[in-house]
Amino acid sequence: MGISKRTLPIYLSLMFASIYTAFPLYWLFSSALKSLPEYLQVPPLIFPLHPTLENFAQVLFAENLTIYFWNSAYIASVSTIISVMLGSLSGYGFSRFKFPLSNYLFLFILVTRMIPFTSLVIPFFLLMRNYGLLDTHIAVILAHLTFQLPYAVWMMASFFQEMPQEYEEAAWLDGCSRIGVLFRIVIPIASPAMIATSIFCFIWSWNEFVFAVTLTQSTLSKTLPVRIYEWITPYYSLWGPMFASGVLASLPVLLLSLALQKYFAKGLLLGTRYR
Question: 83: Cβ–Cβ under 8 A, 6 or more apart, which residues?
Fold first, then answer.
């Protein structure tokens, strides 16, 4: 089936959008394979003339990038688990129980997600310093929860609002308690939405930079984005290790997205109405 004049602009626009989106990723991967002289070429080289894995070897072995991988994975995993657990319980409560000002409270939780990150950096820094939590995983996790938890509540409440209550009523008729209905009926049905919410929360926490660079100081707590940023100094920039670190940092998220891509669609299709 040929391309008609009517669909040609659509195909061209999709092709342009794909190239525009994929080119930065290609530039990242190709730059990680370049040697130092190739970074200084003018005009820049689109393809590396002599591909090398020296940059990857440097960041993995000489610079011990694995410790930053662990910090990012630990912070992202813990903050995601807590956000999804509390967000699921809160979302279920908002969708099933009505109490005074419940709609306004739900709206307030959603509005907190819209606060700019930078407006809370200094208050968080002072708070964590006063409680002796500065330069710890807990400090970054608490900061991430500030923005992940409202998002998880909103996502899960939207899902539960669209979920038919007949399943729960049938379980009550069989003598199941409210807690039993929640863990035996509701959570298994809501597992796709919980996975979709977890993916979004994990990716956000994995890539977050502002709180991580402000609340961490040592290798034991710095995350991967902070270490990538440190390849640029006022005196010189190590482009090769920086690009290689960027490639390695993008791989876990890329593989996670490919493995669970069907849940992305589920998450994007979650309803946004709340009554």
Answer: 144, 145, 148, 149, 151, 152, 197, 201
**Could you give the number of structural domains in the chain?**
2
pLDDT in tens, 91-134: 888 888 877 777 788 888 878 878 887 888 999 999 999 999 99
Q: Measured between alpha carbons, how far apart are the two ends of the chain, in Å?
A: 47
- 110 in a structural domain: yes
Q: Residue 47 carries which DSSP code?
A: S
> How far is 65 from 55, CA to CA, in rounded Å?
12
- Shared domain for 47 and 68, answered yes or no, is no
96 and 180 both lie in a single domain: yes
CATH of the domain at 155: 1.10.3720.10
Q: What is the DSSP letter of 237?
A: B
Domain extent for 46: 1-52
Cβ count within 10 A of residue 139 = 25
Handedness of CA 129, 132, 136, 139 (dihedral sign): negative
